[in-house]
Amino acid sequence: MTGNRRDGGLPDMIERAWRCTVCGYIHRGPEPPEWCPVCGSPAAEFEPYDAAAAPRAGLQAAGLRCLNCGFPAPGGEPPDECPVCGSPADRFEAVAEAATAAAAGSTAKVLIVGAGIAGLSALEAIREAAPGAELTLISRERELPYYRLNLTRYLAGEVTEDELPIHPAAWYEEQGIRMLLGEEVGELRPGEHGVVLCSQEVVPYERLILTAGAHPFIPPVAGAHREGVFSVRTVEDARELLTALRPGVRCLVVGGGLLGLETAAALGRRGAEATVLEGHEWLMPRQLNRRAGELLAEHLRTAGIRLLTQARPKEIVGDERVAGVDLDDGLHLETDCVVIATGVRPNSHLARRAGLDVNQGVVVDNALVSSRPDILAAGDVAEHRGVLYGNWFASQYQGRIAGLNAVGSATEFGESRGSNTLKVVGLDLLSVGRFEPEDGSYYVIEEEADGRYARFVFHDGRFIGAVLLGDASAAGAVKKAIESGCECSELLRKEPTAADILEHLQAR
Ligand SMILES: Cc1cc2nc3c(=O)[nH]c(=O)nc-3n(C[C@H](O)[C@H](O)[C@H](O)COP(=O)(O)OP(=O)(O)OC[C@H]3O[C@@H](n4cnc5c(N)ncnc54)[C@H](O)[C@@H]3O)c2cc1C
Questions:
Q1: CATH number of the domain located at residue range(s) 426-507 in this protein
Q2: Best of 149, 203, 368, 398 to mutate for ligand 1, by most ligand atoms within 8 A of CB?
Q3: Fewer CB within 10 Å of terminal CB in the chain, N or C?
């Protein structure tokens, strides 16, 4: 392939990439797409992304690699700062050529359990790195790997079921991948290098990658088994919920996090009367301070979503079918259906039973290898340095790294600086760092105007946290300043406004 030069002097063969700041989707091409195919955000939400940042096969061949995020820097000199995670030059180490050469020639039998984004990303990375590897993918779900995070858009009627799959069936055939869909793994047998399906078939492996994801956490509320109680994790869950919907149907959504709010908005778009029950005093308390949570609630109410805060279900009542919910303060709410969106738990039971180290998730090291050297784990099922990321971007990124490592590459996962920029029912939101002061030594600047809210938190003159609501266009500069511990003492002496702070950060 020859590379023609464009105006900017870059050869065409050098791939450009763009990252959706809302969901983390990476688009490769000269321009960002008009709309994010994953979450529907417009082109303006995309930021340039270093095409090399998603670890690709062979890129780290004869060069240096960031120990923190795996970014490969070819040549003998490390960059001053890693363009992906900002780590300094001394965090780069030489990568042995042999590791990549080993991957290229690998004919390893790799078995991937779980066809979510982590499993698919592992598969894609292995195919690029090791065309000769023998690949099998097992999934309890019958569907081809799909955009799970688009399920609320599917519920809302914004995308069809045909638009959910990530690749068509033909892609898996072309790649020579053995697909065992609709098959559940019931047991791992690490000593025998095999897994046992519920059908009793034993599938052997040389390397196993666990990407079994997570399941909805159902709080211990009496009556949660009744007909008409749903959760949303799989396309099958979404189909079932859709069958219960008709205009005017009453639906209580338990949980005021991102999934609960997006689900309520989607149900509203289908003509249902959706009410969100949040146990805390305000919405998204892990991401938002009280005022920001209240402003988000106003936005949602304007969008037609009803909200009850400090509302904790005690019992889901009815006969076989749900008829109402009793709250622990004595309030009774009548309803036709209930959706539970109170977080997820990793599907780590198979690994625990097989004797692997498991805390909440399967414990992995930087190479995403579990306590058994031939078993790796990635995505929602994995726990890395005590962190369960539970998001799309980290799952995708970890999947690639686990895939490369399974065929003999040497790539590490440091931590994901994935997006903490969200779009909640159309409202931009950034929450980063510490946003609640712990004592009088913290300094907070807070402003709201025209439906926008900004909060900046400083400690000892350093910028340590921020919340932006309604306009997160400065998210990149704000995140970078917080991550680098930006010193702002001089600026603070001038008693700056929010606009002054943003100007200062963007000028850095
Ligand atoms: C509706 C919804 C909206 C979301 N929105 C966002 C968002 O906006 N941004 C964001 O960052 N994240 C979002 N998330 C979270 C994100 O989708 C997950 O973090 C991500 O999909 C996790 O990917 P994974 O591959 O680790 O696991 P999963 O996608 O859960 O995949 C696990 C796979 O393992 C299979 N499996 C499990 N157990 C077995 C077994 N015993 N045998 C065989 N197969 C098994 C399952 O069938 C499945 O195929 C959302 C999630 C949902 C449900």
A1: 3.30.390.30
A2: 149
A3: N
